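Continuing the batch. This is chain 6 of the set; chains 1 through 5 are on the previous pages. Same settings as before, nothing changed between runs. Recording input and output for traceability.
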Amino acid sequence: MKKLVIEIFEIKGGSEISTELDVLVLDLHKRYNGNILLKKIDVFNKEQIKPHKDIIEIIKKDGIDVLPLIKADGKVVSEEKLRDMLKKY
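Output for chain 6:
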């Protein structure tokens, strides 16, 4: 089974929201036998954020308050959509 790649885009140091999201993802990671690859990306790290033009555009349009953002299998998703996707794994 292929791994689901989940990328969390946030400001280094995190926030309560991303901490809750981390707990969700780590819990699901255990439940789904390690079939999830989690990457945390600091939006202020130019090298990390550079390949993610879609995330850069969202931040430019909506501001930094939209963080954290989630990408799963290359698509920007909500926490709810992520939960739905995880049902397949």
